[in-house]
Fold these 3 entries.
Entry 1:
Amino acid sequence: MKQVTPLKLAILGSGKGSNARALIEASKQSKLYYETVLLITDIPHAGILRLGEEFQIPAYFFSPGPFKTKFAPEREQELVTLLREAKVDFIALAGFMRVIKEPLLAAFPKRILNIHPSLLPHFPGREAWEQAIDAGARESGCTVHLVDHGIDTGEILGQESVPIFQNDTANTLHLRIQEAEHRLYPCIVNTVAKTLLQKKSHY
Ligand code: GRF
């Protein structure tokens, strides 16, 4: 790849951060079109915060306000300010458990990605791996999509399927899906970064 300044990625996550780790490690191991510059979580002491220390990336607990499933509107606006100050170009949700609303969507149009643990449009919402087992599905997988106003409804950018075996439990399936997630997410994030960089160079 020719010498370009990588785009600045912020990762928002609520959990252990294995997808955040995959995104960070991929861009450290080989030169990609993005670099992770900010880690944000809505959960104090979330595992994802430890990645900040490990990889020397600013990582913050960002208090979301009184709601359980979304940011308070003024907090979401403040988050936009924080992301702007860090000169963030685009955002990856990685196990982030809040619905993104207008302030953030409007500030980063078509620049917020999510990874979901099923082959959308099948099994949107929570515990998608459990939904797949309960439905008796023979395969599942993961999907990277753009975030829009709905829940797991945005434009699909990439998918990887995994088989479901007869003796699978929700847990073993989730582990297999996560392995696929860790391959797929860095690949799609890099492709999106490359496309955004190409658009930028046409201005
Ligand atoms: C992943 O399975 C992702 O698909 C879902 O939440 C989980 C987050 O896991 N949205 P991690 O925190 O990245 O390990």
Entry 2:
Amino acid sequence: MNLSVVILAAGQGTRMRSALPKVLHAIGGAPMLSHVIHTARALEPDAIHVVYGHGGEQVRAALSELAVQWVEQARQLGTGHAVAQALPRIAAEQTVLVLYGDVPLTRADTLQRLLLAAEGGALGLLTAHLDDPSGYGRIIRDAQGDVIAIVEHKDASDEQRRITEINTGMLAVSAAQLQKWVAALDNKNVQGEFYLTDVIAMAVRDGIKVKTVHPASVSEILGINNKQQLAELERSYQRQRAEQLMLLGVTLRDPARLDVRGELSVGRDVTVDINVVFEGAVSLGDNVSIGPNCYLRDVVVGDGVVLQPNSVIEEASIGAGSRIGPFARIRPGTVLADEVHIGNFVEVKKSELGRGSKANHLSYIGDATVGARVNIGAGTITCNYDGANKFQTIIEDDVFVGSDTQLVAPVTIGAGSTIGAGSTITKNAPPGELTLSRAPQQTRKGWKRPVKKKKE
Ligand code: UD1
Ligand code: CA
């Protein structure tokens, strides 16, 4: 099928009460409009036209990586007028599929069924039965049950308002026909708009069959006009993501307390406890276990890794068998080899740690290259910043850094060396030796604590 998709996205979205154009508000971490574009793409159309208006430049800039045709609708004169802006760019032999930029959760297979309905010169119309149809255009059928028109809620009689079958706004029909009908639209209605919905009656008049298709679930056709609806659809979306993950074999302690905002790939036997947030591109190996309240953004996690509760990991790679947290912070540019242990209140930034190395308590490791089997004692800090520039710390294999040590970069700690607890290391420490900087310990024999003077 020669398909052109037209996505209507020019609406203002005043009810969002936001400076951000409505279609840029995020579902699952991505602008709602990008979900519609991705779904449209799955249908392999020849072109996707996005009709934009409000905050147009911002919308185009935010989605500049998506290959779509941008069509401006300078004034929002109605859905029919919006489609009319795109039609001159669409060849007559194409099939046009109309979607809405603020209806993000429509499934591609539903749209495939809609396109199928439009085959052979029919008009495919996506409709749904709603318990509360108010606000929507109503589907008017004749005695035979054939669709003959759509009447907008505001234009409808009381009797028509009792109809529960509503127009979702999505339809598919030949471009040649649509061009003819849209050109004939007027705005003689309660809202003074050019209604796309008026083409239905025109189609029927021209002897075109209107075939209706229903979505698999109502969330597929729900639009977003305010923050409540945004939150509701976010929950629907997250529920779907959770279901997909469970079908892939992931154990979710509670599918309602998980957020995936990006691409998440998973191995076998992954377990995710509650309130975990995944952002960007995250990949989890086999047998990964993630404790409650962890945040992962753009992370590669190797097989058998245990992330203990309340760990925050961004732009990092965690080697197989590593154990992180609880309360660990792994910052961008960190690469941990296999079997690394990062414990509570440890912050690691832009550093590499070799196989089997450990920093189990209360440390800051920044701009460091740490070898294998290194033990970093509690309270160790790489002093990587002099207030102006950052410097590197190199800790070679098999080093033991005693607790409460400052390593003032640039500095190299030689392989197999030991740093005495409480040291401030400002010069390179030679391999294999004990290095320490420590004021000698003193004992003042017979010294007495001061006592409080008695008041007279
Ligand atoms: C429209 C339908 C209605 C349907 C409902 C489903 C018409 C006349 N009515 O009503 O039958 O039940 O959607 O939600 O089509 N838009 C533009 N330019 C415009 C006007 C709208 O791009 O000039 C876009 C909006 O951004 C939105 C979509 O078209 O994505 C629908 O517009 P909206 O104002 O929400 O239509 P409704 O009046 O709700
Ligand atoms: Ca609407």
Entry 3:
Amino acid sequence: MAGVSVMVEKQVTKEQVTVTKRKEEKEQKVGELTDLPGIGDSTADKLREAGYHSILAVAAATPSELSEAGGLGETVARKVISAARSALDMGFQSGDELLEKRKLIRKLSSGSLSLNTLLGGGFESGAITEAFGEYGSGKTQMGLILAVNNFVADPESYTIFIDTENTFRPERIVQLAKGVGADPDLVLKRIKVARAFNSDHQVLLAERVEDLIANDGLKVSLVVVDSLTAHFRAEFIGRGTLAERQQKLNRHMHTLMKLASMHNLCVYVTNQVMVRPDVFFGDPTEAIGGHIVAHASTFRMYFRRGKKGSRVAKLVDSPNLPEGEACFFVTEAGLKDV
Ligand code: GTP
Ligand code: MG
């Protein structure tokens, strides 16, 4: 990351430096939550407790979220959000500014050249990448491999691994770390694993990541949620509860997306598939979570078993890359190209 920012700094012009300075001054002026109109010390405390640590977090909230978190009326909440937004200059940006911003995006290597190529260089930061597929298709393995590669890319940074199925194995991390020549102990120290016992717990754990970054000063550059949907699927059975499930899942995805874009970190989530009984032609498998998960994921991959024990990843959705497939083996040392 340090390397990347140095590279980018070299390219900025004098004019851009002045703009950045002006922005920084503006941010400094309203650096505290209490600088926002209508936010006193006690409301600020409540907001922080609810995970709103910065002006940016407030600016990204909806009026109802903020009013619930801070015990404010909706009209006040709306005013606060609008003040936060103008303080941060959250208006429209021109295409060239966005292109400049995209230079800060990192690509986390999967270890397989063909998979990296499929993803335009690797797993993108500031985005959610979802892998869905049948059992044993390699989704969990991918998460473990990314955690190790995240260490290799930046030994100072942390991976947060939210494990819902009790499939995180430190022994496997040791194997994979040795596979890339990294010190297993150091790698394990940089992975914070949390076991989620049910969907509520899972949602809270994801929200807690913001605290780890803002309060504990943890430098987090990868968040893995394995599996994103298993608890939701098990807990909400039947059509009657579907709306409730989707609402909760939506909130969860929103939390993950906010983390990704506010902290320019990678989010990797896994998802199971179900067989649709009404599909007679073509592939009847479909990812769990419906439109909510489909739309919230920036990149979607379908993992399946290939020939001779290989795994095939198909990119089925991406904002800027063509559909395509990558083929690789899961080996003791990590991914290997076919
Ligand atoms: P579910 O969570 O059940 O939906 O499956 P998943 O997609 O998460 O599968 P997972 O990533 O757990 O893949 C398990 C498969 O990875 C195993 O069946 C093995 O084929 C492979 N695998 C796991 N560990 C090793 C290993 O150390 N060496 C090799 N060669 N393969 C491994
Ligand atoms: Mg798994």
